[in-house]
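Protocol step 4 of 6: structure prediction from sequence.
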Amino acid sequence: MLGGMSWESSAQYYRLANELVRERLGGLHSARIVLSSADFADIEALQVAGRWDEAGQVLAEAAQGLEAAGAQLLVICTNTMHKVADQVQAAIGIPLLHLGDAHGTGSDAGGAGNGRAAGYRVHHGAGLLPRPAHQPVCKCSSRRR
């Protein structure tokens, strides 16, 4: 998980990942997670200045660290930074679960089932969704295996 943008958003992703694992596996199972938490003040300053390439580089380097730590899938725990998802994906060899993969499927982090994206003013109209034309990297399901 690539978080910290904001920590409140990251906490929601962490909670949801563990709820899904508990639902699928039962008992006391929890998600095995590697988390890198960025300092949102640094990222937000780059966003406001329009320095998206630099923000993407910060996230790409953090993603490489997560991959080196054993992550098998990357999730960016914020809506806005999906603007640099392709840059992050290009820097790693593991799949990135893009917000656009789930958008419009009836699921969202808030559980409202409407697939809408919410976020800071900087992300609205920023071309975040839908994901560039390609097949989603995975299909998520809460069914127990």
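Step 5 (inspection) to follow. The chain is about 40% helix and 5% strand.
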